Amino acid sequence: MNDKKQLLSPEQVDFLAEMMNIGAGNAATALTQVLQCQVDLVIPRVFIIIDEQELSILNSPSLPVVCARMNMVGDVSGDLFLIVPEEQKKDLIRLAEQAMTGTGQSWRAGLTSQESDDLKLSVIAEIGNIVAGAYLTAVHDFCGLNIYHTVPTVATDMVQALLDESLVKLSRQVQHIIVVENEFMVKEKRIKTFLVMIPSIESVKTLANSIGQARMTMVKDGA
Amino acid sequence: MQNKIEVTMGRGAVTIAPHIISSLGIGSCVVLTLYDTKWKLGGLAHIMLPDSKNPNGYHPPYQCADTAIATLIKELRSMRANPRNIVAKLVGGAKMFLSSDDLSPGIGEQNIISVKYILKRNRLPVIAENTGGNYGRSVEFYLDSGKVMVRAIGREDKEI
Prior knowledge:
The complex is a heterodimer of chains A (223) and B (160).
Chain A: H1 10-35, E1 39-49, E2 64-74, E3 78-85, H2 86-101, H3 113-143, E4 147-149, E5 153-158, H4 159-172, E6 177-186, E7 189-199, H5 201-222
Antiparallel strand pairs in A: 1-6, 2-3, 2-4, 2-5, 3-7, 6-7
Helix pairs in contact in A: 1-3
Chain B: E1 4-6, E2 12-16, E3 20-26, E4 30-36, E5 41-47, H1 65-78, E6 86-92, H2 106-121, E7 126-131, E8 137-142, E9 148-151, E10 158-159
Parallel strand pairs in B: 1-3, 6-7
Antiparallel strand pairs in B: 2-5, 3-8, 4-5, 4-6, 8-9, 9-10
């Protein structure tokens, strides 16, 4: 038996998904600037999930991923994750490296392996920072909600192990997870990322209200 | 024939030798194995929460420490296990993200404390554990020996 209820109407879910699509576009633009090469976006898939058992990335719970974790603060609070499968981390770091040195040479020459690992993680943290900002800007543009995110902390481990602390909160109360599955095409490399947003219960209500108002204004403007 | 049962987050299973129960991607959750050393049977629970007190609704039996342990013991008893022969092992309870602005012990440590307390009240000895730290784990529980294999990324496999 499951007594969890969807707090959002189907129209609101559609609207939220559309907002996340725009966010993905913003993210691609931001990455184009950071990586200094064309980043194309394969149409993102947006899921709004109310039960942790439905979380598709957990189909392989021990998949190694690198994950930047942030908190959302402001009008909406909660947890925010940017997840990149471990096998695509290398590609992403190589691209960042090329953008920074402009030559494709390694910037890590002369560093110890520990320093080099730290640097790699901070590259992922920075990308998490930029991508999260791009999504939250889309939410702001549509709903007028001001959401900020904290400085990311990065860890590399099994995907479920990284998420379970946040998923536990989900089993405690009715909550929604917003998952955006993105594929970016950069220099013929596919980079798959997952953005996982876990807003607090009060924040889901805030989101629902703002979405309702935003839709009203759009309908008016359209007429 | 040796079968492998995979237990997902918040679930549990019991079986007999020579089968295997596995559970993957354990972060702040705690995996508890109970094993009857004489009859070579046992169970595994992938526990998410320290207790089931929750005003907001219902928890499946294996999700919380108190109900999970009660359910496991009940299941093992129905398989004619003798509580005197049962030993416990614990894996998990990590804190995955270390950050300077959050120094709270986290849900992982609460889970471990709660599971140990309830085991003690049930007079079930914890004979081995691999808990804490900031890394995820996967386990395989071998019912023919009672051994638990713990795997983590970038670390050596550990048998407890």
